[in-house]
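A common beginner's mistake is to predict each chain separately and then try to dock the pieces by hand. The better habit, illustrated here, is to supply every component at once so that their relative placement is modeled jointly.
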Amino acid sequence: MVSVALAASLLTALVAVATTARTRVLDQITHGGPLSSISVSAAAPSPGQGGLDNPTPGHAKALTGAALAQMGRIAHVTAVIPVLQDRVIVVPPAAPPSGSRLCLAPPDNESCHPSGTASPVAVPAFDDSIVGINLSDRSSIPVSLLAGTYPSPRSTTELDVTLSYLSHLGLGQQQASEIVGTDVEIGAFSVVARGFRIGLRWTTAEIVGVVTQQAGSGGLLTYPGLVRADFAWTAAGRAFGDSDAPKSPYVAALVQADQLSHVQGVRNAIAAIGYSSSAPQDVIVSVEKYLHVIEIILTAIGAVALVIAALGIANALLASVRERRREIGVMKAIGARDFDVMRTFLIEAGFLGLVGGLLGVALGIGVFLGIGSIANGYLIAQGLPGVPITLAWQIPVGAVLGATVISVLAGAVPAGRAARVAARQAVEA
Amino acid sequence: MRRAGLGAVLGALALVGALAGCGTAASVSGAKPNVTKPPVVDVVFGGIESSEVSSRSAVRSAWPKLLYRSVLGTAGQLYDFAQPGQTVAGALAEDRAVGARLHPDLVTIWISTADLLNGTPLAAYRLALDALVASVGKSGATVLIANVPSFERLPFYQACLLDPSLCGASRRTVPSPAALQRAIAGYNAVIASVASAHKARVVDVAAVLAHTSGLSGASISVLSAAEESAVERAFAADIPKRLRRR
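With all components supplied together, the output reads:
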């Protein structure tokens, strides 16, 4: 039973680690988005670059709602997620949070003295962009949560910030939780009269989380409502001569194909509509092949261990049959049939496999969680988002069932031998 | 024996269930319920006294911003049209239409310096201010109008006397200190009259700043940090409770 438990634990841990590593590697390539996601730029396609994963976009071209609707009608497209963006002035809280490296610079403008004697200074306001995207379907967008949570659906007063916001406050990723719950002021400007008369629209939002995101190029991320309102304010400036005011709130879109093999076809259709797109489909296909080989090897190692354990069970049961010949003889003498004897040994083998499998799975999950927390600690120390430590239910259930079935099979030969023992011969022996 | 075997199998299945359950990771916390109230819209018409664009730090410390932060915060939207050199006639022509379209709940007006330095006649000042307040107050907004403090000791004014181009005025229009005092009194009378006619409130910043260092800002920025705070408190005191969110 111990050998079955060890083998099951090895199998569980290896398969779980391999699956998690696969998810992490593919997440890194897709920035947390789905494998069949296509990023559409607000630019025309560059001629002669079809088929490339990440071509250089052509000239800038406003991404309109009509174009997005057209993309939604392309065959094999399951979702079109628009990405909105607007330039804003960001005013963080006046005092830096605890742990900030920001402090009063000495007159010679050197950085803060390491002794920490200098007083903190107000965090300066800075220019940035606010990105708006529907965060409800997070599995479809390239966003990973580092701390806190995501804004409430359709909220215009909650947002997440990226690591660039932290660096403006003199904070590292380890201090991300320090800013969760603080307010940030966001100012969108607009030309409100001829002569470049500026009017500022200020809103205040609560920072509810820290994320990494590849949907847009801004340090603030929220649902589209707030960005749409800021964009409308900025875009109204066109009426007063602001030729730089954006024509469309959409800076990009994420188009999702139903499967990886349809990505290139969808990209061709997007190019036909007149927009440049990129998708890492070639890289994903290559990486998936390698990852699949690794998964097979790791699973095979676990399976070999399980087979060895099964041989151990068979050996133990054979020994048991030899030791219990007299007992088998008595059973047969009082009326037990061959099938009854065989069933007894098969149940014993199955029970050993089941209990060993359960114990092994428990141990394997423990090992997996341990490895996961060590890996997460390392990733976070390297400034990368951690791995979600999740285990598909099929892995432990499969390991237990597999251990049980293999044990029953291993017990078939000893059970058969036990069943064939002649009653008189066994009792005499 | 059969019963014991059945018990073992059930126990094993329960253990499988428990293990499968503990294997799933704690995911990110769920979203909070989103209670959405319409935001309080605060519109600021102002000159250099209220301006945020005169300096980079002002986006944090100008009194309209302090007021917005202390009274509204996440529950409000601030539309700031203040800019150095703005006159009441300018605000009427350039900002009033956009401001009125915003259907403000709260309007603050503090425009006088540029009018005084440019020699805007009292009648013209009254006409423009009356039209501005009437227009923005149409939607039922609470309108707060600041009166004019004495600023003849202000370095800005002193520099303007020597070189009017520094304050965007001409030598012909910059009043002498004595004339400035008379003009301020006249403007304040107009402000009180217009406010009374449109049920607006007059914020007595003249009295508030008389107790501080007296508009002693050394640069082109008119108000010191303490004065910005004092003005903010004066405005905040006149904001009705129904508009307060903090």
